[in-house]
Design goal:
With 339 residues, this protein is an alpha/beta fold. The protein contains twelve helices and ten strands. It folds into two domains: 206 residues, Alpha-Beta Complex (Spore Coat Polysaccharide Biosynthesis Protein SpsA, Chain A); 119 residues, no CATH class. Strands 1, 2, 3, 4, 5, 6, 7, 8, 9 and 10 form a ten-stranded mixed sheet that branches. It starts with 6 loop residues before the first strand and ends with a helix. The model has no long low-confidence stretch (mean pLDDT 95).
């Protein structure tokens, strides 16, 4: 029997995909002849059909757009490699980036490794080097806009970025992949936190570089998914004692978000997110039971993965953020003392 490829790179495509050709070319110029690139066409037929043929390129076409979470799950299901690499379709890898990321997860203690994702228009500046996770479930691109020279040492991170990460197939199967219900956003954080709970580590590998045509944007659909999936992650992944302690601040924070949304005319998305969380109550109970049963990480150790201040550098600092962070940090000190 012919052995399968050692590495499967999985890329999702949707919409116009102006950078897909460059992404695919960078991967095919990097991987070995025995590796493969699995391209999931989530609704980008024109861009996908325009790609040149290559024996290492395999196309997967779901019947509908499965989003990032479901699309990655479909790509993994079709992939044959022992190591899986997820890469955004608007990113390009530097030479040896994939092999260096794969090497980082060869350590059996490491579940997931993410690379140094740089801004395409400023390749010496960081897009993300792993994502901080606030105790309220808010996540952002770590190190955004900073000089990449400040991030040249490998280190553990709370959450890997789905823009460019590697994971062994066996670990992916053990963790069950992404929760398909998320559709998009927070699935990389949820997977990373569950990896930590299973006793693994999540690492940042600076020598694995990808440039990303990143543009921060907001729209009603994204706002809904971010809000809903943040709650789904906290309610299923957080240890019970920690969840009970952060819940009062979660509720207060979200009521404040509702007031802001009302003033901005976006309260409908806040309401939709709340309704969806309530509608997923059964799923939350079942998933929480399974996640907590598999956890070997105590609440205090889990809390070590979280930060006290919300500091996303990719958006303009809103009025009152300094005061909010002071309140959040004081509350977190109380939580940590009670843990």
């Amino acid at each position: 029997m012919t052995p399968g490829p050692a590495v499967s790179v999985i890329v999702l495509a949707w919409g116009a995909e102006p950078y897909l050709g460059a992404c695919v070319e960078s991967v095919l110029n990097t991987i070995e002849p025995t590796d493969e690139l699995v391209l999931v066409d989530n609704g980008a037929r024109a861009a996908v059909d325009a790609l040149p043929a290559d024996d290492r390129l395999r196309i997967v076409r779901p019947e509908s757009n499965l989003g990032f979470a479901g699309g990655c799950n479909a790509g993994v299901a079709a992939a044959r490699g022992d190591t899986l690499v997820l890469l955004n379709s608007d990113a390009e890898v530097w030479p040896d980036a994939i092999s260096r990321l794969v090497a980082a997860v060869s350590d059996p203690q490491v579940a997931i490794a993410c690379g140094s994702v740089r801004l395409a228009d400023r390749p010496q500046s960081v897009n993300t080097v792993g994502n901080p996770v606030h105790y309220l479930g808010v996540v952002w691109a770590g190190g955004y806009g900073e000089d990449a020279e400040r991030h040249l040492q490998p280190r553990d991170v709370s959450s890997a970025t789905g823009a460019f990460l590697a994971i062994r197939r066996a670990v992916w199967q053990e963790l069950g992949g992404f929760p398909a219900e998320y559709f998009a956003y927070h699935e990389d954080t949820e997977l990373s936190l569950r990896a930590w709970q299973r006793g693994y580590r999540v690492r940042y590998e600076p020598s694995a570089v990808a440039i990303h045509h990143y543009e921060f944007s907001r729209n009603p659909r994204k706002d809904f998914l971010l809000q809903r999936n943040r709650w789904l992650t906290v309610l299923t992944v957080y240890p019970s004692r920690l969840l009970a302690l952060v819940m009062p601040m979660m509720i207060a924070f979200d009521l404040a978000l509702a007031v802001v949304s009302l003033r901005q005319g976006t309260v409908r998305q806040w309401g939709r997110a709340l309704g969806s969380v309530i509608g997923h109550a059964g799923l939350i109970r079942r998933r929480r039971s399974a996640v907590q049963a598999a956890s070997v990480l105590g609440p205090a150790a889990f809390a070590d993965l979280l930060v006290a201040r919300i500091e996303p550098a990719m958006i303009e600092r809103p009025p009152g953020l300094g005061v909010l962070n002071s309140v959040l940090a004081a509350y977190w000190r109380l939580v940590r003392a009670l843990l």
